[in-house]
Amino acid sequence: MSDLRSGPRDVDAWATDESPFPPDSWGRTGSAGAGAAAALPWGFALVVVLLVVGRLALAPHLTAPALRTWATIFVAICVQALPFLVFGVALSAAITAFVPASFWTRALPRHPAAAVPVAGVAGAVLPGCECASVPVASGLMARGVAPAAALAFLLASPAINPIVLVATAVAFPGQPLMVLARFGASLTVAVLVGWLWLRFGRTGWLRIPSRPHGDGRKWARFGEAMRHDLLHAGGFLIVGGLAAATMNVTVPREWLTAIAEVPWLAVLVMALLAVLLSICSEADAFVAASMTAFSPTAKLAFLVVGPMVDLKLIALQTGTFGKAFALRFVPVTFALAVLVSTLFGWLLL
How large a percentage of the chain has pLDDT more than 90? Predict the structure, then answer.
C-alpha cells in the first residue's frame, strides 16, 4: 500500500485507478498559490486596520451638520425620484413591448410640425415627474416617433399633468392664475423647443437608444426593456442627486434674501435655484410658495424651469441621449423657460 502513496500521480490517472488513496499532489497548490494563501490573512488584517483607523479619523467629520444635511438631501432626492423613475421605465417598457409602432403613426399627425403640439398636450396624461419623462421619451423615439414630438412630450408631461396642477393649486390657494400661468408657460416652452429642434436639430446630435429585443414574447421584451432602462437611468439619477445635494449645502441662504429685492435678478436666480435644487415637480410648488421674499413671476420661473432643466435631469438626458444632445438642448430650454415664464408672469401675475 505504501507504493501507492510514494510518488505523485496524475489526477486523471488516479480517477481511473482502483486505489483508495489520492496522489500527493491532490488538493495542493503550487508555490504561487501557497504565497497568495499565506498573504491572505495579512491582507485581511490590513483592511481591518484601515477600517478602524478610518473610522476614528473620519467620525468627527461625518457628524458635521453640513454633511448630515447633504446626506439627507441626497437621500430625499433619490427616494422622491425613484418611484417615478420606475414608473417611467415601466411605461416605456410597456410602450416597447405592447404598443405596435404603427399606433404612433396613426395617433400623431403625419407632419412633424403638427405632431409637436399634439405630443405636448398629450403630456397631460402622464401622472409623473421629470424622471419618468426621460425613459418614456426615449421609448417613443425608439418606436418611430419624431424626436421633436418626443422632446415636446418630455418637457410638457412633468409640468402640465393633473397631479402637478392640483399640487400647484393647493400650494397657491386663491391664486388660480398661478396654475394657469404654469400650464400655459410650460406648454409653450415645450412646443417652442420641439419646433426649434425640428428646424435646427441634427441627427448626429441625438443618440436614440436602441431597445433590447426579446425572443418574440411580449412579456419577455417588457422585462428586458425595463431592466435595461432602469439600470441605465438609475446610475445617472444618483449622479444628479449627488450634484444637487452638494449645491443645496454650498449655496448660502442669506444670498437669496438680498437678491429677491432686484426683480430681474430674482427671476434669474430662482430659475438657477430650480436647476440646483432638483425638486420633483409634484413638490416644487410648495417650495416656491414658501419663498415669500420673491415675486410671483420669479416663483413662476422656478416652477417652469425646474421640471425641464435640473441637475438630475441633465444627468439622465446626457446618459440617455448623449453629451452632444445635452450641450445644445439644456441651454436652449433654460433660456426659453426663463423668457416665457417672465412673459406669462408679466401678463397674468
Answer: 19
